[in-house]
Description:
Layout: H1 15-26, E1 33-40, E2 43-51, H2 52-55, H3 58-71, E3 76-82, H4 86-100, E4 108-112, E5 115-118, E6 125-127, H5 132-139, H6 148-152, H7 163-178, H8 182-193, H9 201-210, H10 214-223, H11 229-240, H12 249-261, H13 265-278, H14 283-293, H15 301-323
Parallel strand pairs: 3-4
Antiparallel strand pairs: 1-2, 1-3, 4-5, 5-6
InterPro entries: DUF4192 (IPR025447)
Pfam families: DUF4192 (PF13830)
Amino acid sequence: MSIPQQQPRLSVRNLDDLVGVVPYLIGFHPQESLVVMILNGGRVELTARVDLAPISEPSALAEFWSRLDLRFPLAEPWFLTFSEDRELSWSVLDRCALLVGEHRLGRVVAVVGDYWEADRPGGPAGAVRASPSAAEAALLGLPARASRAELAALVAGPDDDDLDHLAERFATLAEFLDQRGGRARRAILDRLLRAAGPLSDEDAVMAAILVSEPARQLSVLRRLSRQNAEQQVELWVSVIGRALTPYRPGPLGLLGMAAWLTGNGALMTICLEQLEMVDPLGPLATLLDWLNLRVLPPDLWPSHRRALLSAVADHLTVVGAAATPGG
């Protein structure tokens, strides 16, 4: 689920524009997907994407819509499918229309291959092509990767060929950090968090080691804001690219939080999926899952920050000793 940042607005003039701008709103070109756009007063409040086949189950679709409806009870939803299966697309879109009701529904659009059709099978149609809004989004620097897999590659971790070298580097730098006191370790982390641009290999390894400590994870969370989130996304992507498996949970969770604060719900969800494989019961996975299930907009972070950080601190107190792999 992606929520727009405060940035120059894109003007969507027609359905050609709408279809063309979706990849820039979710960060990649959707395939076999249901996309929901929540509009309020003509402004997009949220764009959500789910895999089409699983959501075609009536219970799954009803649960998904109930989460959106709870958060945006008065907003106008638009539904778009992106699939080669036209019959499945319209089956899902028809169910969406029934769930929402005619009084609230915006439009339903099926994108099949290189054309789209709206409202009903055989309804108004057009070709999928570059639109003015898509060009404007590209000029504004909004990313639209070729696929979700390309976005997921950001958190895939180091190449197999680098593992032996990284294992040696982790051992050396873990010993180096162990010989420093708490104040020195805090100073090193402070320096790394202020870095502009991707970290060097050595700094990325040290960052991964330091945020394997529960107290350090909480310290970084306390500093996160919408103002520094973009910089933190770049930083933690570079750390994950060098993090061995035991050290992945901290950087993944912190990247997921920074991505959420930038409105990049797709990257946040990918981080959560990775955390569910390496640390499903950890405090950072729990925090991201809570935010995702409640569709909490990042502009509400200031009002929820204290309570959520307190919950994370309580969780870290319980699991802290076991969660540290050796830093």
